[in-house]
Every structure is written in C-alpha cells, then in structure tokens.
Specification:
Elements: H1 3-6, E1 15-18, E2 21-24, H2 29-45, E3 63-64, E4 67-69, E5 74-76, H3 78-85, H4 93-105, H5 113-116, H6 118-122, H7 134-147, E6 152-153, E7 162-168, E8 172-180, E9 185-194, H8 206-211, H9 214-224, E10 231-235
Parallel strand pairs: 7-10
Antiparallel strand pairs: 1-2, 3-4, 4-5, 5-6, 7-8, 8-9
C-alpha cells in the first residue's frame, strides 16, 4: 500500500506526498486543522503509525525534501547551505561526482547551470584524465558562492501567465520560467542543457536551436500542466526570431 493510494482523496487539494513523506498545507488555519483531522483519520483507517519526533505542525516555513517553503517562495534548507559552505575542492572523480549530484538536485535554483558547471563536467567525461585546474576551481567557487546567497524561487500561480526566457551560448542553452506577481517578473525555475559535439556552434539557426531547446520546452511543458494561461517566450538571440512566441503548441524535439 503506497502513501499515494492512502491519501488519494486529498492529493493536490491539501496534501503532497513523496514516498513516505507528506506535507499538509492550507492558507487558512481553521481549514488546515480540518485537513489534519482528515489526514489522521486516513492514517488510523490504514493502521499507519506516525512518529511524533519526525513531525512538525502549524509551521509557517516547513522543511520538505531539503527545501524550505514560505510565503516568499522556495529556498534551499540552511542545513544544505552549511554543507556547501564547508565543501572542500574534490580531489578525484568520485568526490566531484558527489558534488555534482548535489548541484543537480538544486539545479532549478541556478541560472545557466550547464554553462557554469561546464569546466567540472568536462573532466567527468569518459576517457578524460582528472585534472583540477584554475577553471575547475573558479567554477567550484562560483557555484558555492551563489548557493550561499540562499536564492529564492517563487511558487507558480496557476492563474497567472508565464514567460519563458531563453539564452543560447556556444556551450549551453539556458532558460528561466518567470511570472509577474505585481512587482515585476520573478523566477519560478531555471533549466539548462550543455551542448554536445556538433551542437557546440556559435551561429544558431532555427533548426539547430530547436534541437537544443529541450530545456526551454521541457520547463514550459511542466508549467502547462499547472495552468491554462499561455506562456510567452523571448530570447536574446536574433536567430530565434522564427521560434514560436507563444508556446501553447510547442513540443520538445528529439
């Protein structure tokens, strides 16, 4: 019996489930208490036990899966930020893979991540001798410094339109999904993809950009599941002018 089946009637109404972790949410205290009662009833019906020491109730900023959720948005848990602050430069492939595993976990917070991590991922390629030079150290320090600023991503509002901004460089394509909450456009999520082989070019045509636009269309498609309003796209590259301005019909191309 999975937790998704147990809380099926409450999913996406007041409950989020990930494996055996759940979050019960509401903006109104009285309704939240009723939601908690409904959750406890389901626990009781399925004879499941709650460990009190692992629970938190009526929290304004709950921690969930290494993130802190608040009225400001979503940010990385300070415990993880502390881990980043004390992370020593990797001395071998295994240590670098461990660091990159963490970076990939929080990639939605990092603008142009594929470009920023290129010096690190280059030395992880098969058949490449591990070398930790100035480029690798600079990329490592830059990532640590950025994450220690505790970046915040706003929570998507299904009732507002999205804007997807794309930027292509010779080594990577980056995107940011934005919404305006009344104070200008704010980031919802970042996504990026490193270009490989023949994709590494300086002059993009519409066809070539479409092949390497997966970060943008993938990010947008996730947003489309949440909202009816259309999303608008814009890019700093003139060659992308023929790329659709409205993404309601865009699909990621393989």
């Amino acid at each position: 019996l999975t937790m998704n089946k147990v809380f099926r009637s409450l999913l996406d109404k007041c409950v989020i489930v990930y494996l055996d972790d759940i979050v019960v949410y509401n903006t109104i205290r009285e309704q939240h208490l009723k939601d908690l009662e409904a959750v406890f009833t389901l626990y009781d019906q399925h004879r499941l036990i709650i460990k009190g020491s692992k629970c938190g109730f009526l929290k304004a900023e709950p921690e969930f899966l290494g993130h802190v959720i608040s009225t400001e948005g979503v940010k990385i848990d300070q415990k993880r930020i502390h881990t980043v602050r004390n992370w020593e430069p990797p001395t071998n492939v295994k240590q670098l893979q461990c660091f990159m595993g963490f970076i990939n976990y929080v990639h939605r917070f990092i603008p142009k991540m594929a470009e920023s991590t290129a010096p690190l991922t280059d030395v992880l390629q098969k058949g490449v001798f591990y070398v930790w030079g100035e480029r690798q150290q600079a990329a490592f320090d830059q990532l640590k410094t950025f994450l220690m600023t505790s970046p915040v991503l706003h929570i998507a509002d299904p009732g507002r339109p999205y804007e997807l901004v794309m930027d292509a460089k010779d080594i990577a394509v980056g995107t940011v999904l934005l919404q305006d909450f009344g104070k200008g456009l704010q980031p919802i999520a970042y996504n990026s993809q490193k270009l490989q082989g023949t994709e590494r070019i300086t002059q993009f045509t519409t066809r070539k950009f479409s092949r390497s636009s997966r970060p943008g269309t993938a990010t947008y498609q996730r947003a489309r599941k949440l909202t009816a309003p259309p999303a608008q796209g814009r890019s700093s590259n003139r060659a992308h002018a023929k790329f659709p301005r409205s993404f309601s019909s865009v699909k990621s191309r393989e």
